[in-house]
UniProtKB/TrEMBL annotation:
<dbReference type="GO" id="GO:0019427">
    <property type="term" value="P:acetyl-CoA biosynthetic process from acetate"/>
</dbReference>
<dbReference type="Pfam" id="PF00501">
    <property type="entry name" value="AMP-binding"/>
</dbReference>
<keyword id="KW-0547">Nucleotide-binding</keyword>
<dbReference type="GO" id="GO:0005737">
    <property type="term" value="C:cytoplasm"/>
</dbReference>
<protein>
    <recommendedName>
        <fullName>Acetyl-coenzyme A synthetase</fullName>
        <ecNumber>6.2.1.1</ecNumber>
    </recommendedName>
</protein>
<feature type="domain" description="AMP-dependent synthetase/ligase">
    <location>
        <begin position="100"/>
        <end position="467"/>
    </location>
</feature>
<dbReference type="InterPro" id="IPR045851">
    <property type="entry name" value="AMP-bd_C_sf"/>
</dbReference>
<keyword id="KW-0443">Lipid metabolism</keyword>
<dbReference type="InterPro" id="IPR032387">
    <property type="entry name" value="ACAS_N"/>
</dbReference>
<keyword id="KW-0067">ATP-binding</keyword>
<dbReference type="InterPro" id="IPR025110">
    <property type="entry name" value="AMP-bd_C"/>
</dbReference>
<comment type="subunit">
    <text>Monomer. Interacts with TFEB. Interacts with the 'Thr-172' phosphorylated form of PRKAA2. Interacts with CREBBP.</text>
</comment>
<dbReference type="Pfam" id="PF13193">
    <property type="entry name" value="AMP-binding_C"/>
</dbReference>
<feature type="domain" description="Acetyl-coenzyme A synthetase N-terminal">
    <location>
        <begin position="32"/>
        <end position="92"/>
    </location>
</feature>
<dbReference type="InterPro" id="IPR042099">
    <property type="entry name" value="ANL_N_sf"/>
</dbReference>
<dbReference type="GO" id="GO:0006629">
    <property type="term" value="P:lipid metabolic process"/>
</dbReference>
<dbReference type="Pfam" id="PF16177">
    <property type="entry name" value="ACAS_N"/>
</dbReference>
Length: 640
């Protein structure tokens, strides 16, 4: 609590307008501070108020929040409202239709890839479709606790499929539709899914993606394949929800791990429900007349929390967009904002930087007067992009909420509240309610005041992940072993003199390409699987739009020559193993790699070489310094 300043600074910061403050849920920094203290000192009271909005079949039996964050004291665990029974699908649909009388309210304006391709779905219709599909799943033998893999484009059926799972207590494991067959397979195997829900295909811009072909690489097989439309046609609209314990699993979502093998992040029912509902309401200052649009894909956590669960829990109306910001042209986003009168808009720095390149004219073709709040997520936003977003898109009327969080955190953990927190461009500002951050140095000492180091959290909030599916030990090792007593984010962070937090980026072997995390290890192993490659090392090279691009160094097997054809093959290899997001931007032939005497590749040095920075810092641990000159000589100047 001492980390939150008594007063927000008055200078060199940007404030929300008086109008926004007047009707805001959290109208001032004083109010934020008061509630923050309550949320940390008495979580059961703070979250108890949030829980009152939901339906509970039975009440919780133990502590509101029970946990151990210290590996030296036993197993790591987090439990929220254990013993209570509820159903998240019931809470986001039935409760809205029956108790809150929102049946005729639009849940989603679906906007297809092709302009003019559109569809509106009300809460009542969504509930009907979910019940029908839940019955379909049951008729296929899917039961509570079973895992269901979903590999679908951004269509209403994707939301229907995930909520149908939640309704019957099945655990959805959604795989982003941009992933390759091999990545899909790895995830299905790891979570032991009993069924895969997919689609024939979809258009991304003018490119056709044939999902079904990727999924099985054989045509329709009547022995294993069933058709959604023929099954759902005859299904009943009545489907009693399966009542779940608070700590029953809700979903698994894979995120890159530094060893290369993705981790199945597991979230459970009640804590996740409370947390996504509260963050959505307060961070976007949601009101019932809002039209909200999050441009993320549901295949990522942003879509899970802030397209499906958070907005629906609040009875919000959202835009569900299948397409791209640049198709058919770079005005598409603003055209959609005007078309649906979007008031709260949430996107990623990479999209902002991409559109920024085309200047303000494509933005100004549309009036955007409906906009009230702008959000960003996925990676640190550079102040230039922040300013463009704030000034050009929002015309300085709309606060920008820079929300820092992770697949693991379930929802926003460091973020401004739009009417309460004075903004500093590029800073995720302060913790959300219930979140207690700290900055540690390399030896694990907590730093006070202005400082820079590892960003960690001292105690759980309801929405934090519970385990890595099937591998609790990996969960403990990844997040809790480095600094006993703390959840380690893997991000670096600076705190300024006013107490503001600035995320500085990953400090582990992770890359952030267009807001998507990739581990260097997974790209390296895709490269070395090629018969020509003996060794590979991958680093991030700053990229004006994507944040980072992939710069790959490959050492070839003896007797193999590097050429254009091989380069194309390697690129294709990575795409096929992982997916298009992991496509290498640069590949450099590297007969030798910089290694320490113990054989560890010095990625720090490779990062400098990739950027042509001559000052390599301390290279005294390098086993053979002659490789450096050669690496500089062979640098790639143009992307492949
Ligand atoms: C990593 C988590 C959370 C949904 C999207 C990504 C980076 C995310 C921010 C931000 C600075 C950010 C971090 C984090 N990140 N948001 N506002 N400012 N960095 O989810 O794939 O689990 O990635 O994204 O490095 O650890 P994810």
């Amino acid at each position: 609590i001492k980390m939150i300043p008594d007063k927000a600074p008055g200078e060199e910061v940007l404030h929300a307008s008086g109008d926004l403050k007047k009707q805001a849920h959290i109208p001032s920094f004083e109010k934020y501070k008061e509630l923050y203290i309550r949320s940390v000192e008495s979580p059961e009271e703070f979250w108890g108020d949030v829980a009152e909005d939901f339906f509970w079949k039975t009440k919780y039996t133990g502590k509101f929040l029970d946990y151990n964050f210290d590996v030296t004291k036993g197993d790591i665990f987090v439990k929220c409202m254990e013993g209570a029974t509820t159903n998240i699908c019931y809470n986001v649909l039935d409760r809205n239709v029956h108790e809150r009388k929102l049946g005729d309210k639009v849940a989603f304006y679906w906007e297809g890839n092709e302009p003019g391709d559109e569809k509106t779905v009300t809460y009542r219709e969504l509930l009907q479709q979910v019940c029908k599909f839940a019955n379909v799943l049951k008729s296929q033998g899917v039961k509570k606790g079973d895992r269901v893999s979903i590999y679908m484009p951004m269509v209403v059926e994707l939301v229907v499929a995930m909520l149908a799972c939640a309704r019957i207590g099945a655990v959805h494991a959604i795989v982003f539709a941009g992933f390759s067959a091999e990545s899909l397979c790895e995830r299905i195997m790891d979570s032991q899914c009993c069924i895969l829900i997919t689609a024939d295909g979809f258009y991304r811009g003018d490119k056709l993606i044939s999902l079904k072909l990727i999924a099985d690489e054989v045509p329709w097989n009547p022995e294993v394949d069933l058709c959604w439309h023929s099954l759902i046609g005859g299904a009943s609209e009545e489907c009693e929800p399966v009542w779940c314990d608070s700590e029953d699993p809700l979903f698994i979502l894979y995120t890159s791990g530094s060893t290369g093998k993705p981790k199945g992040v597991l979230h459970t029912v009640s804590g996740y429900m409370l947390y996504t509902a509260a963050t959505f309401k307060l961070v976007f200052d949601y009101h019932s007349d809002d039209v909200y649009w999050c441009t993320a894909d549901i295949g990522w956590i942003t879509g899970h929390s802030y397209i499906t669960y958070g907005p629906l829990a609040n009875g919000a109306t959202s835009v569900l967009f299948e397409g791209l910001p640049t198709y058919p042209d770079v005005s598409r986003m603003w055209e959609i904002v005007d078309k649906y009168h979007v008031s709260k808009f949430y996107t990623a720095p990479t999209a902002i930087r991409l559109l920024m390149k085309y200047g303000s004219e494509p933005v100004q073709k549309y009036n955007r007067t409906s906009l009230k709040i702008l959000g960003t997520v996925g990676e640190p936003i550079n102040p230039e992009a922040w300013q463009w977003y704030y000034s050009v898109v929002g015309e300085k009327r709309c606060p920008v909420v820079d929300t820092f969080w992770q697949t693991e955190t379930g929802g926003h953990v460091m973020t401004p509240l739009p009417a309460a927190t004075p903004m500093k461009p590029g800073s995720a500002t302060f913790p959300f309610f219930g979140v207690v951050p700290a900055i540690l140095n390399e030896s694990g000492e907590e730093l006070e005041g202005p400082s820079e180091g590892y960003l960690v959290f001292k105690q759980p909030w309801p929405g934090v992940m519970r385990t890595v599916y099937g591998n609790h030990e990996r969960f403990e090792t990844t997040y809790f072993k480095k600094f006993p007593g703390f959840y380690v984010t893997g991000d670096g962070c600076r705190r300024d003199k006013d107490g503001y937090y600035w995320i500085t980026g990953r400090i582990d072997d992770m890359l952030n390409v267009s807001g998507h995390l990739l581990s260097t290890a997974e790209v390296e192993s895709a490269l070395v699987e090629h018969e020509a490659v003996a060794e590979a090392a991958v680093v991030g090279r700053p990229h004006p739009v994507k944040g980072e691009s992939l710069y790959c160094f490959v050492t070839l097997n003896d007797g193999i020559n590097y050429n254009q054809k091989l380069e194309v093959e390697l690129k294709k290899q990575v795409r096929e193993k992982i997916g298009a997001i992991a496509t290498p931007d640069y590949i450099q032939n590297a007969p030798g790699l910089p290694k320490t005497r113990s054989g560890k590749i010095m990625r720090r040095v490779l990062r400098k070489i990739a950027c042509n920075e001559q000052d390599l810092g301390d290279v005294s641990t390098l086993a053979d310094s002659s490789v450096i000159e050669q690496l500089f000589e062979n640098r790639c100047c143009t992307a492949v």
